[in-house]
Amino acid sequence: MKSDVIKSAALLFCVALSMPRVAWAQMVPPPCDAALLRALPSRPPSALSGSEFVRRVQGMSETERDQAAEAELIAGNLPSFLRSLAPIHIRGKLRHGAAGSVTVCVMPDYLAIGSDRDFLRMPMRLSTALRVAQRYGFTLPTSKLVDAIYAQATVRLAPQPLPAGDEMRSTRYYWRHNELIDEQRLALDASRGVLTAGHKKDLVLTNRLWRTPGRVAIYGWHRAPDSPIQPLSTVHGARYADYSHGVRLVSSVAYVNGEPRSLLEVLADAELAPLLSDEGEIPRPAELLATLLAYALATAGTETGSFDISAP
Hints:
By secondary structure, the chain is an alpha+beta fold. The chain has one domain (2-298). It has ten helices and 13 strands. A hairpin with a 2-residue loop joins strand 12 (250-256) and strand 13 (259-262). Helix 4 (62-74) runs parallel beside helix 5 and helix 5 crosses helix 10 (285-298). It is globular. The two termini are 22 Å apart.
């Protein structure tokens, strides 16, 4: 039964995120055009603000809060400043010595709920992040992409850790950390909507998750280029999220030497993947994403667990 769920989910991801190259070429305008955001629903006029959402979810369980967050994001309740994309340009030598370049298009900040004036950057469980990403036609970054985003960011904010403890997963901590980030941004007179980094850890894709699909991979919270507080880690179960986590979405379309390609196709390409991943290629990334989501659904109610899923 579990294998059937995984196979079905993998097929859906493959259809949604791994379309043929010809289709991308016909559908996608130049890099980071607004057409890449066509799957985002418009924000409803009656949508909650960030502070209203916080009041509504106070007292909810973590599961209920995640469900509420997913419903808001699927309905299009995110600020307009997230409805533009920033290009991240990565150049390097390919395995046979030729020069290669890949451009990926990323949201300028972490997923948030609310309006431009009143919003909450929303930490969430891996399964929630994957469902929202799939709905929008996006995916998660690799750790190497997180480094590149920080290196190319217009605004670099300093990490602001809060005291460790049980409250790290509380709504109060989520809101307080959001306030600290905005206070720092205002002190720098930094505009919303420009590429901003350094203020959260990222949920990322890694080959480690082939062996431990019951985990979440996190990385980042940079103090300086190549100096993250959080090295790549799969310590926490897939249902874990705390105030320091952020979800940076990356468009499922990448541009290889100017040509539109499926990002998942690039990550699976042994020649091109090293430009985007320190681990080299990520085999069958659509299947990996589907497996992570299917595993999270199959193990709802448990915090940990792992099994080998024919790791490449």
